[in-house]
Design goal:
single chain, alpha+beta, two-stranded antiparallel sheet, 2 helices, 13 strands
């Protein structure tokens, strides 16, 4: 059942956003440095594989969801949100592969003490599935992952407004801008809503989670508020 949020909860949510921008404020697990990525299509004029990914498995357990920030929501710092941002009550929530692919890059994020990594459906894919705010990562660049494979766990997030740690995770899907199957130059990407690539069950589960948790700025919850955004 959808639950509304009071003005107090709205203030708390905005405080959460501010905390996110500033990063965690306590000791968290350190992560390894960046791993050299496999060759990417940036700057390439090769024809790209435009077969989209199929998102079929939940990245995190949605039963402990606290906030759901949908794709395309306007951010206070400007621009529009490119990923689904999931805030969980469980700081030990595991992160799972939503689709099959190959790990092409892992980037450390010292300000958050976590990592972000890319998984492409194929080595020359136009698409990239991005997993952000992950710790205890179990994969390395070049690994092939299968749907449902454990990849790590959510990062911890200091929610100053509620005086406790929460978990945070972001799921994003980027697509290279192409012309006749080849990347335009200069190379650029656009982000698309994960719902566009989800199976019916995948999308239904996320829609139910958003309706259950609500969002302080959305009178009518929607998984996607834009067709695409600049990441």
């Amino acid at each position: 059942m959808k639950t509304g949020l009071s003005l107090g909860a709205l203030a708390g949510a905005l405080t959460v956003l501010a905390a996110c921008a500033a990063g965690p404020t306590g000791p968290v697990d350190a992560e390894p440095p960046d791993q050299p990525g496999v060759p990417t299509q940036t700057g390439s004029t090769n024809t790209l594989d435009e077969t989209p990914p199929v998102l079929s498995v939940l990245a995190v357990n949605l039963d402990s969801l606290r906030f759901f920030f949908p794709f395309g929501i306007e951010m206070e710092i400007g621009g529009y949100q490119a990923p689904w941002k999931l805030i969980t009550l469980d700081t030990l929530n595991s992160v799972y592969a939503v689709s099959a692919g190959i790990v092409t890059a892992i980037r450390s994020q010292p300000s958050y003490n976590d990592v972000e990594f890319d998984v492409k459906p194929s080595a020359n894919s136009a698409f990239t599935v991005i997993y952000d705010h992950v710790t205890d990562v179990t994969i390395k660049v070049g690994d092939r992952v299968t749907p449902g494979q454990r990849l790590g766990r959510v990062a911890r997030w200091a929610n100053i407004g509620e005086g406790r740690w929460l978990g945070q995770f972001e799921l994003q899907v980027n697509r290279a801008v192409t012309e006749n199957g080849r990347p335009v130059q200069p190379y650029r990407e656009l982000a698309y809503c994960p719902r566009d690539f989800g199976t019916p069950e995948f999308n239904e589960r996320h829609a139910a989670a958003l309706a259950r948790t609500g969002h302080p700025s959305l009178p009518t919850p929607s998984l996607c508020l834009k067709d695409h955004v600049v990441p």
